[in-house]
Amino acid sequence: MKLENDRKADRQYTVRSVPERLDRELRKRARLEQKSLNRLIIEILSNAVSPDAIADVNHRLDRYSGSWVDDAEFDAAMQELDGIDEEIWQ
Question: What is the pLDDT of residue 57?
Answer without folding.
Answer: 60
